[in-house]
Amino acid sequence: MRIVLLCQDQTDAADLPAGAVRLGDADSLFQGILFIEPAGTITFANSSAKRLLADGAGLVGRPVEEVFRTQRNGAAVVFGTTPFAEDDAVFDLADGRRLPVGYACSPVVEDGRHKGVILSFRDIGKLKEAQADALQSSKLASVGQLAAGIAHEINTPIQYIGDNIRFLSGAFDEILPLIEQLRGSPAIDQAELAYLLGEIPRAIAQSLEGVGQVARIVLAMKDFSHPGEKEKTAVDLNRSIENTVAVSRNEWKLAAEIGLDLDAALPLVTCLPGEMNQVFLNLLINAVHAIEAKGPASLGHITISTRRAGEMVEIIVADDGIGMPETVKRRIFDPFFTTKGIGKGTGQGLAICRDVVVAKHGGRIQVDSEEGKGSRFTLSLPLEPE
Q: How is domain 2-123 classified at the CATH fold level?
């Protein structure tokens, strides 16, 4: 197929060469199409090009460098007689925007004369976002697998360290009567003996406590980073919440105190465990950021509670952070909407929560918030999927 530029008096379709189309027909194309004369003036722009490039001043009749500029191999691109294409480029627009594009430049030559170039381009912004999300998901999956492997490797030495410390504790209790007999002996430093009798049990108790904490974190990490199930299974949400709090401790320990009010009689819930873990983590991190935004004056408070409500279970995450005005509350579940600074949030956390709870589990997610006083998120999940 050959594209020809029509003069004003060449409007009859019968005047077209065989296999040629009007540039005007390009209005129906998804790609942007420009025709640029050798002097660099735009003489045709289809609807997609106007939508993507126009800054309110129009396109036709303007020099292309006034509309956008781009670079290739570090130099400004000149649309001349050489055909070329780039799959990943950026148009720096006159209004200050940067438009990621893939484009192709095709010179038009007739009877040996250079008539200009046809420039076709497409917006690849959404594609690049999807690629970045896919890369991040791949990284997170790799980190999860790595964490599960590390947790497995740590678990074995922690077990025998704990066993050895418990043996030492029992052995010390058995020899304590013999040690007591040394009290008053002139051959023994009585001050040193009193110090050892006081500190050894304390050291053993602290060691056992530390080993127990590490073991709990390891088990929580193994559960949390377990590969996601494709089918819904019966899950103990209380345990999922406890695991989430344990593995995220480094995120909240300097900002908030966490209180758990978990219903011990909460029934198992049929759901996707990996995705619900992500929901709990997102809500917890969101609460931490809300508290940090108030400033470092004092520790904030986060409360996570569970309860049964008929044929549903409710998970409530409440914080005493900065809260939200009504204008923000209406948009918090919109994809890519965020009030956080650069590098602090992507605007995807709460959107993911809503998708998992509502779309994938047929549940509900509600938020109550008062500016300056905090927020309260309530998740409602059916016990059994429909």
A: Beta-Lactamase (3.30.450)
